[in-house]
Amino acid sequence: MIRFLLRMAVFLLAAAVGVLLTAWIFAAFDLETFSINWSEPLGFILAIVVFALAQAIISPFFAKIARNNAPMLTGAVGLVSTFVALLVAVLLTDGLDVGGAAGWIIGPVVVWLLGMLAAFLLPLWLLKEGVEKVRENRDE
Q: Which ranges constitute the DSSP H helices of 29-99?
């Protein structure tokens, strides 16, 4: 049970990191087509939860469809599920604004890449922090 909760926490953190960094990158390049609505902080949290939940539900569904009908598309499942999850989050919440071609084409690609990188690196970083705390406690 603890492992499941830790995986969910890492998945939510990775989704948040992916969306936050994508919004920051878009702002750095003066693209206003992917942004976070900071006037609604709870809306942003809800958007991340909806995005992560939608992606967790949609990914296995798309993976099964791809495996059964077009095995060569299984590599694109993560990207497609990111796009659909962003669409769901934008439609159901007020915390995230995506618009225009750049927002809907480049945005999901960047969110997917950064989220995938965060999902890989966060457990390593958290594990390192945990090991260091255990060593500190043991040395005392």
A: 41-69, 77-92
Q: How many angstroms separate the CA atoms of 105 and 99, rounded?
A: 10
Q: State how many domains the chain has.
A: 1
Residues in the chain: 140
User: In which domain, by residue range, is 52 found?
Assistant: 15-126
Give pTM, 2 decimals: 0.86
pLDDT of residue 126: 77
Closest CA to 92 of 127, 53, 125, 139: 53
CB of 85 within 8 A of CB of 51?
yes
8 Å CB contact between 90 and 98: yes
In a domain, residue 50? The reply is: yes
